[in-house]
Amino acid sequence: MSHHAVRRLILIGLMLALSALITAINPVFLSSGNLLKLLQEAAQTGIIAVGFTFVMITAGIDMSIGGVVAVTSMVCINFLHYTKVPIPVLVFLSLFVGALTGLVNGYFITKFKLPEFIVTLATRSILSGLALVIAVKDSLGFVQNVYIQNDSYLWFGTSGLFGIYRTTMAFLILGVGAQVFLKHTRTGTNIYATGANPTAARLTGIDTERTTIGVYMFSGVCASLAAVFISSRMMTAMPELGLGSEMDVIASVVIGGTAFSGGVGDVWGTMLGSLFLALIKNGILKTGISPWIQPIAIGGIIVVTVIVDVWQKKLREHLAARAKIKRLSAERGRDAA
Amino acid sequence: MATNDIGADLLLECRSITKSYSGHVVLDAVDFSVRRGEVHALVGENGAGKSTLIKIITGATGRDSGQMVYDGTVVPMEHLRRDAEALGIAVIYQELSLIPGMTVAQNIFLGKEPLRPLTRLIDVRKLNDQARDLIERYQFPLKPGDLIDDISIAQRQLVEILKALSGKASLMIMDEPTSSLTKTEVEMLFKIIALLKSEGISVLYISHRMEEVYSLSDRVTVLRDGKLVKVLDKEEISPEEIIRLMIGHKLEEKAVQHELSPKGGNVVLEVRGLTSVGKFEDLSFDLHEGEVLGIGGLVGSGRTELVRALYGADPFDAGTIRYLGKEWVPSVRKSIEGGIGFIPEERRLQGILATQSITRNIGIPNLDRIAPRGIVSVKEEDRRAARGIELLNVKPPRPEQLVGNLSGGNQQKVVLAKWLVRDLKLIFIDEPTVGIDIGAKEEIYEHIRALSARGVSVLLVSSDLPELTRLSDRVIVLRQGRFFHEFRECVLTGEKILRAASGIREGDDE
C-alpha cells in the first residue's frame, strides 16, 4: 500500500475516533440534523478548497479566494436588489467574477513572473475594497443589509432529497468531477506535472503557463460558486463575507495531503480534509468548549499536519537509505566470497 | 540497413562547434560524431566542455557557430529542446525529471496518454497495458501502477529510459547515469545499454568512471579545455590512454607535478571511522599543524559531505573526531569559536551574501568580535573589513561595494577574507577556484600557502587536479564514499590522482 493510502486511512480513523468521542460527550452529535449541518459546513469550505487544491498542486497559492467570495456576493446582492435578472443568468455572471479574477491572477503570475502569494494577496485587497465600494448603500451612505427575497435564489441554500443541503450536493458533484478531471484527463496530468517539475513539464511539451492560468481561473470560479451558496443560505451578505475563510480552506487542503511544494495531492483528500475541519468545529460546539478555541485549533492542526508529513517523508528516506546500505553490504559480501 | 561505410553510418555529426560564455571560449571548433547503434563515451575533466557540448546537442543552449547534422537532417542554428526531442534525441539526466505522485505508466507516457475516443478521458487500462508491454519488452523490474515515490533511484532511472524509448528515441544521452547506483544496478544498466545497442539505438555516455567507459564503449571522444583531443576506436581504448589524453601532454604534466612532503608536527584534527549513511563510510585520517591535506575523488565520492560534516554543517552517524587533542562534536558555532574556518563550494549559493557590502560579508562570521554584546561596533567592523580588503587585495577596494557586483575571483577573496581576519587554526576549503580567472587563482593559492606557513592546517577539496597537486602536502583519494588511496612522499601528478579516483590501483607506489 502506498504511503498516500496509509495517510488517508489514518485520517479516516482519526475522524471516526473523534466522532465517537464527541458522541460520548454529547449524543446530539449523531442526530441527522446535526450531521446534515456538519456536511453543509464542510461543503461551504470544501467548494472553495477544491479549486484551491488545483492551485496548490501546481505549487501555487491563491490568497484572493476570500476577496472573490466577498465581491461575488456583493454582485449578486446588487442584481437581486436593483434588477430582475433571471437567476441562471445571475449565477453565470457571478461565476464570471471568479473566472475573471483567476485570469488576472494567472496573467500576472505567468507573464510577469511574479510570486503567486504577492499577486493574489494584492488581488484580495483590491477585491475586498471593491466589495465595499459596490455594496448597496442607504441614503446616508452606510452599507445596507439587503435581505434576499428571491425564492429561486434562496433555493440554493435550502435542503433537498433526504434533507441533504444543496450545497452539500453541489460539493459532492464538484468534488467527483474535479477528481475525475485531475486523474483522467491530459489537462489534469499537466497540472501535476507543472507543480512537480515545471522544467520537465515544459520539456514534455506541456504549456505550463496556460495550465497555471487555468487553475487560478478554476479556483476563482469555485470561490464564486461558494459565494452563491453561502449568501443564499444566509439570505443576505455582508461585504466582508468570505474574508478570513482562507485559513479554513488552506487547512482543508493541507490536511487532505496536498503538499505546498506542489505535484502531490488530490480532491478526495481535500474533501476529507474539509470534512475533518467541519468535524472539529462542530465538535468544539457540541462538547461545550469555547468557540474561541476554533482558530487556535485550526492553526494547530495545520502545523501538526505539516510536521507529520515532513516526518513521514524523512522516515521514508531514512528507510530507503538503510535498504540501500544493506544491498551494498550484501554485494560486498558476495564480492569477498 | 547496417553498412560498414562510416560516412553513411553517422547518426549525428557536429563540425567545428564553437561556444563561448561572456568572452570565455568553452568549446573551440570541436568535431564530434556518433554512429548508428554505437555506444559512444564522452570524457574529459571538469570544465573540458562535455556538458556544454551535450547542451548544444540537446538544444538546451545555442551554439555560436558550427554545423550539426542529425539523421541526414541539417540542424538549424535555432535548435531548441523541443526540436531535439522531435529529432529523436533523448536525455537521461542525473537529476530525474519524473513526477513523484504519479505512477510509472503515467510518467512514461506523460503528454502522450492514450485517450478514449468519446469522452477524451485518459484510457487508464490502455495506458497501463502499453506501459506493461514496454516494460516486458526490456524486462525491467517495474510495475506500471507503482508510484514514483515508492520505487528506488535505479528504478526511476529505468522509467526515464522507458520514457525516452516510448518517444522513439534514436540517440539516448546518459549523463553520469551510474553515480547513484549500486553494483547490481550498474550491471543491469549495462545490459540495458547492450539491448538498446542491439536495437540500433545509439547511446552517448558521459562518465568519470574509467572501467565503465572501458567496458562499454565502441568509441571514446576525449575533450580537454574545450578542444577535441582525440577520438579513440574500440581497440585503442584503455584507461591509461584515456587518462593520459584527458590530462594532457607530458610537458604540461611536468609543470604541475609536485614532490609531496608530509609534515609531522602536532595532530590538529584526528578523524576515526567517520560515517554518514549513504554519503561516506569509515573514514580515518590525521591532519597535522600547518599541513595542507588534499582530498581527491570524483564528484559524488563524498568529499564535500565529509568537510561539511567535519565543520558541523551536517550531522554524521558514527565515528569520532578529536580537535587539538580533545574530543570534538562539531557544530558550526563551536567551529567558528574554536578557530575553524570553512569555504564552501558553490560560492554564490553558500559563500557570499550577494546583496550585502564587502564589510558586512567579512563581518558576518566575526560577530563574536565586532558585536560581543549583540550590538555591532561599526568601527570594529570597518577595521576588519579594511584589513581583509588589504590583505587579499580585493578589487575594487571599496568596503561598501555589494559583493554580488564583484568578479568571481574577488568574491572568493571576500569569502577567504572572512576567515583570514580571525585567528584560525584549521580551515576546510571546498573547490576554492571554480570559475575564477588565473590571476585571482594564483593569489588565492598564495594565501593558502601563507596560511599553511603560519601553522594553520588546511583540508582542501578540489576537482582541479593541478591545483590539488600543487597545494597539497599529502593527498587522500576517496572513491564512492570510502578511502581508496593515500599519496605521501612521492612525486604526485594529476594523472595519478585521477587514476586513483577512477578506481585504478597503482601497482606499487614508488
What would your notes on this structure say?
The complex is a heterodimer of chains A (about 325) and B (about 500). Chain A is mainly alpha-helical and about 325 residues long. In chain A, about 75% of the residues lie in helices and about 0% in strands. Chain A has one domain: ABC transporter involved in vitamin B12 uptake, BtuC (Orthogonal Bundle), CATH 1.10.3470. Chain A has helices at about 5-25, 30-55, 65-80, 85-110, 115-135, 150-155, 165-185, 185-195, 200-205, 210-235, 245-255, 265-285, 295-335. In chain A, helix 1 runs parallel beside helix 12 (about 265-285), helix 3 (about 65-80) packs parallel to helix 5 (about 115-135) and helix 8 crosses helix 10. With about 500 residues, chain B is an alpha/beta fold. Among the domains of chain B are: about 1-90 and about 170-180 and about 200-250, Rossmann fold; about 95-170, no CATH class. Chain B has a six-stranded mixed sheet with strand order 6-7-8-3-9-10, sandwiched between helices. Chain B is globular, with a radius of gyration of 26 Å. Chain B starts with 9 loop residues before the first strand and ends in a 9-residue tail after the last helix. Mean pLDDT of chain B is about 85; it is low at about 1-5 and about 250-255. The chains are: A mainly alpha (about 325), B alpha/beta (about 500). The interface between A and B is medium-sized, with 34 and 27 residues.
In short:
The complex is a heterodimer of chains A (337) and B (510). With 337 residues, chain A is mainly α.
Supply database-style keywords.
heterodimer, A: 337 residues, mainly alpha, ABC transporter involved in vitamin B12 uptake, BtuC, 75% helix, B: 510 residues, alpha/beta, Rossmann fold, six-stranded mixed sheet, 22 strands, 35% helix, globular, disordered N terminus
Give the helix/strand layout:
The complex is a heterodimer of chains A (337) and B (510).
Chain A: H1 3-25, H2 32-57, H3 65-82, H4 87-111, H5 116-134, H6 151-154, H7 166-184, H8 186-196, H9 198-203, H10 208-234, H11 246-255, H12 267-286, H13 293-336
Helix pairs in contact in A: 1-12, 2-7, 2-10, 2-11, 2-12, 3-4, 3-5, 3-10, 4-5, 4-10, 7-8, 8-10, 11-12, 11-13, 12-13
Chain B: E1 10-21, E2 24-35, E3 39-43, H1 50-58, E4 65-70, E5 73-74, H2 81-87, E6 89-92, H3 104-108, H4 124-138, H5 153-166, E7 171-175, H6 183-198, E8 202-206, H7 210-216, E9 219-224, E10 227-233, H8 239-247, H9 250-256, E11 258-259, E12 267-276, E13 280-288, E14 292-296, H10 303-311, E15 318-323, E16 326-327, H11 332-337, E17 340-343, H12 347-351, H13 358-363, H14 367-370, H15 378-392, H16 408-420, E18 426-430, H17 438-453, E19 457-461, H18 465-471, E20 474-479, E21 482-487, E22 491-492, H19 494-501
Parallel strand pairs in B: 3-8, 3-9, 6-7, 7-8, 14-19, 14-20, 17-18, 18-19
Antiparallel strand pairs in B: 1-2, 1-4, 4-5, 9-10, 11-22, 12-13, 12-15, 15-16, 20-21
